[in-house]
């Protein structure tokens, strides 16, 4: 067994050392015009295969990264505007969409619009200032060779997007037994004990998750910190070659509660709801063999949560090794407080290296007619109307299609006039059981 871990470790080292583009990474620079490699070594490609919408440079100078200097924007109408991305079936991915408004438009209203993955609602993007980058992240299991990311439902301003990224996971990372019914939408991913405000991401994280520093100060983010909280760090290697594989750099820093407890309060975007919540621990502090570190989690109002005692060194079977206890399905509030408290028989206070919380988002399986329509449009690859992408009905219907309002909608009418169709009525249309108008 040991040699297998050794081999995996070696592969990880090789792949992070070579700065080549990782397999399974896609980084789209929306509105961009040329390929470029950023300072992290990520290769950005322009989204110029899309002809929808318009492209424009933003007008605020604060952001220097090239992928943020432009956006692609879309009309504020009832249609949806989709990117269709190639994926590998039965593989888990992280998809990240970012939005830097940068005053690109002539509209004086900040945009508000929805983003969806396939037919499933993902999030509402609410822009509230021109220099803040809004980031949405989701983990999903691909069940088809493509996935679509769509913008729709503009309530103010024009929908737009700055970047769209796909990162492929290996093995069983983020496996859940409900992954064919729920996406995981990121709410918090925190690197405790961080030495600067910078996030840790690629190449330190081979999957390019963004681990936010606990030094960053923002409203309702890691406040009410317990007294006696201290940052510690190590340069010793930490074994992170299993579980969710948090990056070693994240596990080499931690906070410890010198006065017996570690506690924080933060707002959880997307909650209240059911979520996936894991803590990442590794014993990285030197202490004498007659000292012990044992602690328990307390969440106000949830006595049932407080049961298991954590002894990192024992649970991880050694020092400098990952231990990641967590909850696959836990009900969490929007204003979330938690505390790790040392047990009475422990000589030392708790430790915490990192934390991740995702909300479960129910997958919407979309229109019953989706596969028939996919087969229809595949015969008209030259035509613009065949490239609207995503589900024919959800979250908004294709511009030439009308759907009923069932949870899994059916197509009730199709308008192909002016679409330059000649010859026979396509066979597919006879399979649309809800069609009443042609
Ligand atoms: C994708 O994988 C699923 C689950 O194994 C399978 O049912 C489906 O047919 C596959 N789809 C394609 C297009 O390969
Ligand atoms: C569009 O957004 C509004 C407000 O954000 C929301 O109430 C409405 O349900 C959304 N419509 C659709 C079709 O998603
Ligand atoms: C994931 O697996 C693929 C194929 O086995 C490998 O090429 C790649 O380097 C792995 N990536 C990471 C981050 O381990
Ligand atoms: C981190 O950012 C905060 C504002 O969010 C600032 O007050 C603080 O000085 C910064 N700290 C470091 C170490 O850069
Ligand atoms: C830690 O606890 C000790 C003893 O209870 C107390 O004197 C000290 O002020 C506390 N430190 C902090 C930072 O609260
Ligand atoms: C989580 O648990 C609740 C209550 O038991 C249940 O209703 C819900 O379906 C579960 N969600 C997931 C994603 O497993
Ligand atoms: C420590 O002991 C006290 C008194 O027996 C008890 O109330 C408290 O819950 C214990 N604390 C922990 C963390 O076990
Ligand atoms: C059908 O589409 C054509 C052109 O795309 C448009 O002129 C016409 O008004 C549409 N008809 C209906 C009933 O929506
Ligand atoms: C309609 O199709 C014909 C033959 O395929 C083509 O020559 C013509 O340019 C098309 N017209 C439009 C408006 O797309």
UniProtKB/TrEMBL annotation:
Domain spans labelled Malectin-like: 28-359
Chief localisation class: membrane
Subcellular location: Membrane
Cited Pfam families: Malectin_like
Keyword Kinase: yes
GO cellular component, as recorded: membrane
The keyword Signal appears for this protein: yes
Keywords assigned: Kinase, Receptor, Signal, Transferase
GO terms, molecular function: kinase activity
PANTHER family linked to this entry: OS07G0107800 PROTEIN-RELATED, REPEAT FAMILY PROTEIN, PUTATIVE, EXPRESSED-RELATED
The protein, known as: Putative LRR receptor-like serine/threonine-protein kinase
Signal peptide: 1-20
Domain of life: Eukaryota
Family matches, as Gene3D superfamilies: Galactose-binding lectin (2.60.120.430), Ribonuclease Inhibitor (3.80.10.10)
Topology in the lipid bilayer: Single-pass membrane protein
């Amino acid at each position: 067994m040991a040699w297998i871990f050794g081999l995996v470790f070696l592969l990880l080292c090789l792949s992070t050392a070579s700065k080549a583009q990782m397999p399974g990474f896609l980084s789209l620079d929306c509105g961009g015009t040329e390929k470029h490699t950023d300072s992290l070594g990520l290769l950005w490609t322009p989204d110029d295969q899309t002809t929808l919408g318009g492209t424009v440079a933003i007008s605020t100078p604060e952001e220097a990264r090239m992928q943020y200097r432009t956006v692609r924007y879309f009309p504020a109408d009832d249609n949806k505007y989709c990117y269709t991305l190639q994926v590998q079936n039965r593989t888990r991915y992280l998809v990240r969409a970012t939005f830097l408004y940068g005053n690109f438009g002539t509209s004086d209203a900040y945009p508000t619009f929805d983003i969806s993955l396939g037919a499933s609602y993902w999030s509402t993007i609410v822009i509230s200032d021109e220099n803040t980058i809004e980031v949405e992240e989701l983990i999903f299991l691909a069940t088809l060779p493509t996935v679509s990311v769509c913008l729709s439902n503009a309530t103010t301003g024009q929908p737009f997007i700055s970047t769209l990224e796909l990162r492929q996971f290996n093995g069983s990372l983020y496996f859940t037994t409900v992954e064919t019914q729920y996406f995981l939408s990121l709410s918090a991913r925190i690197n405790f004990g961080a030495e600067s405000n910078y996030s840790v991401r690629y190449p330190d994280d081979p999957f390019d998750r963004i681990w936010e520093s606990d030094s960053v100060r923002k409203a309702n983010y890691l406040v009410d910190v317990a007294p006696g909280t201290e940052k510690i760090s190590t340069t010793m290697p930490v074994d992170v070659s299993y579980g969710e594989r948090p990056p070693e750099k994240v596990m080499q820093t931690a906070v410890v509660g010198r006065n017996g407890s570690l506690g924080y309060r933060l707002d959880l975007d997307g909650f209240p709801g059911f979520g996936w919540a894991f803590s990442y621990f590794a014993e990285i502090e030197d202490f004498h063999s007659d000292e012990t570190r044992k602690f328990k989690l307390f969440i106000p109002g949830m006595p049932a949560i407080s049961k298991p005692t954590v002894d990192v060194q024992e649970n991880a079977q050694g020092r400098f090794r990952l231990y990641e206890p967590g909850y696959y399905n836990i009900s969490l509030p929007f204003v979330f407080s938690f505390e790790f408290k040392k047990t009475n028989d422990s000589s030392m206070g708790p430790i915490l290296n990192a934390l991740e919380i995702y909300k479960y988002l129910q997958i919407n399986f979309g229109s019953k007619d989706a596969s028939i329509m996919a087969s229809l449009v595949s015969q008209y690859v030259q035509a613009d109307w065949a490239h609207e992408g995503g589900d024919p009905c959800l979250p908004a219907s294709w511009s030439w299609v009308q759907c009923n309002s069932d949870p899994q909608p059916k197509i009730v009418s199709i308008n192909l006039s002016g679409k330059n169709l000649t010859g026979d009525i396509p066979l597919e249309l006879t399979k649309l059981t809800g069609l009443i108008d042609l």
